[in-house]
Specification:
This protein is α/β, with parallel strands linked by helices. It has two domains: 123 residues, Nucleotidyltransferase, domain 5, CATH 3.30.420; 94 residues, Nucleotidyltransferase, domain 5. Helices cover 39% and strands 27% of the residues. A hairpin with a 4-residue loop joins strand 6 and strand 7. Helix 1 crosses helix 2.
């Protein structure tokens, strides 16, 4: 089974081609261009390099969040468009689950941290079991950075941190966790197409079927928060 995966949930754009458990190729771009500018050219270039066509694909995989609200929508829209046009099953995975593959078979707990803005991280905690599966110990959530660091410190065990928030917060992580923290190089710890491909294939083996994909935001967007405040204000005035 041949498949394409897409991840645009962070500032990194990643795509991958895989055939069952074998990674065929991946694309990785961490530049100032938007996902909408990068995603289609990346897919076309990767297919060309692998000597594949869209018609060779049997499945489409996509990361549905959490992460950038705009990025999530771009990735899902692209994947859904390809799935519908090619009449292929669509499989979705979480960004944090995919990132857990950065620490495959490591002894430390794997903790992805993604920039959620508002001084928060999207995070979860995983521990690798024997074989090809990581146990999710702490479910995905949005946490204030200081609260997250305090929580990790209390675990009193080594923590392997991965994700796009690591580089920006290295000083805070070092101050809070010291030698308890293990930081992987960015070429390992940032989102990669290979991680998404692994997560997608693992899910496909369990389900064997496509799904209706919905964005996974965890919390409301800024626009939704502002809309809710306006509606609340309107209701308040109507009762005066």
């Amino acid at each position: 089974m041949k498949y394409l995966t897409i991840d645009t949930t962070t500032k990194v754009t990643t795509v991958a081609l895989a055939e069952e458990e074998r990674l065929v190729g991946e694309g990785f771009l961490h530049t100032t261009k938007t996902h909408s500018e990068r995603i289609i050219p990346m897919i076309e270039q990767l297919l060309s390099a692998a000597a594949w066509t869209l018609q060779d694909l049997d499945m489409i995989g996509v990361v549905r969040g959490p992460g950038s609200f705009t990025g999530i929508r771009i990735g899902i829209a692209t994947a859904q468009g390809l799935s519908q046009v090619l009449n292929l099953p669509l499989i979705a995975v979480l960004s944090l689950d995919a990132l857990a593959w950065a620490g495959k078979e490591r002894a430390e707990d794997i903790v992805p941290i993604l920039d959620a803005r508002k001084n928060e991280w999207y995070t979860a905690r995983y521990r690798w079991l024997k074989g090809e599966e990581a146990e999710c110990i702490t479910p995905p959530q949005a946490m204030p950075i200081d609260k997250c660091l305090d929580y990790l410190k209390e675990l009193d065990r080594q923590i392997c941190l991965v994700g796009d928030a690591v580089e920006k917060a290295q000083n805070r992580i070092a101050e809070a966790l010291g030698n308890q923290a293990v930081i992987l190089p960015d070429y390992v710890g940032l989102p990669r197409g290979a991680y998404t491909a692994k997560a997608v294939w693992q899910k496909w083996k369990k389900t064997g079927a496509g799904e209706q994909v919905e964005p996974y935001y965890i919390r409301l967007s800024e626009a939704e928060v502002n809309w809710a405040k306006k509606e609340e204000a309107k209701r308040g005035k109507s009762h005066e």
